[in-house]
Design a protein that fits this description.
mainly alpha, MetI-like fold, two-stranded antiparallel sheet, 4% strand, globular
């Protein structure tokens, strides 16, 4: 049974006065704060975002892409804290701009996943019947496709066929769009099944029956009455999916089929280090460490959100 936070008592000159009860959001925040590991990793995740996006104010993209072969494969130093790569580019600057792309791919791919997964899961769970059967069979069919295998095939096929795009003064390889769409279009089935299960349970509640009896349109019942009550599993799933998307991008970029130069990502930065594993470990260590820290912090934050948004999952 869900634990209800008792109202706090405030000591005043005239005696104790009961404070108003906490809202669901306040209770969730209180439970999240008690999860020390999640809080620490939330701070780490914020620092990683500051590093990736704030670092652009320190190093320009032109500097990150500037190569000087006279300085190739230099170890970490005061001039180049993370060392230089095989053509003399500063690895610190490239991890900053590579982090922007890796994080943006993770976030935008999950946005695609959310739109498709929520829509299909909500329609299947609310209407049921034939529509539910058709949508769930389609979902199961997509679920049987190996996501990484499809990602490799599609990335290979579309490499060089999608033109580069310019956004906010930056030029991005067209492969960024391809990877975002492929990851988003193949990762939604699990979320759709979760949303469907929540809708099947919630649509039989009295407040939904009352809404139908008053003539409330189905669209309002779905998006204003039921969907807000499924936020907890959606948020947790989306959080963990960001880490999965970043890992998937790193996989295929390491194999040379991901984001193509000149756009840098943490994954394709590691690609050039395969022949220098021992001779120049800084080539793979720093981008690899950033991937590790980002994925771990996202997973721990997701774990904390799960406990915070579902108080039944842990004792108060």
């Amino acid at each position: 049974m869900t634990t209800i936070e008792p109202p706090a008592r405030i000591g005043l000159a005239g005696g104790d006065v009961e404070a108003p009860p906490l809202s669901p959001g306040q209770m969730a925040w209180r439970r999240f704060r008690r999860h020390k590991l999640a809080m620490a990793n939330a701070v780490l995740l914020i620092l990683l975002f500051v590093y990736s996006f704030g670092g652009a104010f320190v190093y320009s993209e032109a500097y990150a892409n500037y190569n000087d072969t006279t300085k190739r494969l230099q170890p970490p130093s005061w001039e180049h804290p993370f060392g230089t790569d095989t053509i003399g580019r500063d690895i610190l600057a490239r991890t900053i701009y590579g982090g922007q792309i890796s994080l943006l791919i993770g976030i935008t791919a999950v946005l695609v996943q959310l739109v498709i997964g929520i829509l299909i899961g909500a329609l299947a769970g609310y209407y049921g019947g034939l529509l539910d059967s058709l949508l769930m069979r389609f979902t199961e069919a997509v679920l049987t496709i190996p996501g990484l295998f499809l990602l490799l095939i599609m990335a290979k096929y579309f490499t060089g066929k999608v033109p580069d795009i310019t956004l906010l003064g930056r030029t991005y390889s067209g492969s960024v769009v391809v990877i975002v769409l492929i990851i988003g279009l193949t990762s939604w089935p699990r979320l759709a099944r979760i949303v469907r299960a929540e809708f099947l349970a919630l649509k039989e509640n009295d407040f939904i029956t009352a809404a139908r009896a008053t003539g409330t349109p189905n669209s309002q019942i779905i998006f204003r009455h039921i969907l807000p009550n499924t936020v907890a599993p959606i948020v947790v799933t989306a959080t963990l999916s960001v880490a999965g998307a970043i890992i998937s991008e790193a996989y295929i970029s390491f194999l040379g089929l991901g984001v193509q130069p000149p756009t840098a990502t943490w994954g394709n930065m590691i690609t050039g280090s395969t022949n220098y594993i021992e001779g120049a470990p800084w080539l793979w260590f720093f981008p690899g460490l950033l991937i590790l820290l980002t994925v771990l912090s996202i997973n721990f934050v997701g774990d904390g959100l799960r406990d915070a948004l579902d108080p039944r999952s842990r004792p108060e």
